[in-house]
Design a protein that fits this description.
The protein is α/β, with parallel strands linked by helices and about 240 residues long. The protein is about 35% helix and about 25% strand. It has 10 helices and 10 strands. The protein is globular. Bound molecules: adenosine-5'-triphosphate (ATP) and magnesium ion.
Length: about 240
Amino acid sequence: MSNEEAELRVQELTAGYGGPPIIDQVSLTARRGAITAIVGPNGAGKSTLLKAVAGLIRPTAGRVFVEGKEVTGQPTETLVRRGIAYVPQVENVFPDLTVRENLDMGGYVRKSGVRERIEQLFLLFPDLRASAHRRASTLSGGQRTMLALARGLMVDPAVLILDEPSAGLSPRFVGLIWERIEQIRSTNVAVVIVEQNTRETLRHAQWAYVLVLGRNRLEGTGHDLLENDEVVDLYVGRLS
Ligand SMILES: Nc1ncnc2c1ncn2[C@@H]1O[C@H](COP(=O)(O)OP(=O)(O)OP(=O)(O)O)[C@@H](O)[C@H]1O
Ligand SMILES: [Mg+2]
């Protein structure tokens, strides 16, 4: 992948929680209009990588670029202004606020156009319009995930980073979430996603990285990795 196309470029990023590094010199790039997936076993450091990119923890080495401009070590709010939206694995909505209030808060860095943006997002997530005045805590798991995605999109991000959006959801909702993610991708957003279901994730990913023990292990098109023996043996399983 050529670097000019990369919306997000992560170069040899090292980060952790004060002890030994959890991710060690990890590199990746993500293009607009593409789904870039990060897969790997539990504890590989996938969430830590996303947190380091999104400014929730400070990398100890390496660099992060958005649209070619370096943003390494910037706080989350600055990164949001630079076009990075991050939807964490848990606690990604305010349960005591209504759907609309959550979206209003999601748009806090916008100078204008909050109402218009909410209207656009209601077209993409019709369920949310119907639930606009309900508290987020009363939504189903699937609806709450939709709200978390919509909140992330309030700032019109260039890069949308998603940590296991379908965790804990029923298969019906998992399919719906992928449909929405494909729609988001088609609006020219660079989607970066971590998911547990490796097979389904690789099917959707234009490009994917396998992270093992905090390091880059493999990368390729989702399609190619689905055929890779190591990936199949470790994470996908063979269809007998
Ligand atoms: N806040 C934290 N403080 C200290 N260590 C942490 C913290 N969060 C995660 N870790 C450690 O970092 C390592 C990687 O965790 P991380 O959550 O990044 O992995 P993951 O690939 O996202 O795993 P999973 O698939 O289970 O979500 C683990 O050993 C974990 O115990
Ligand atoms: Mg994780």
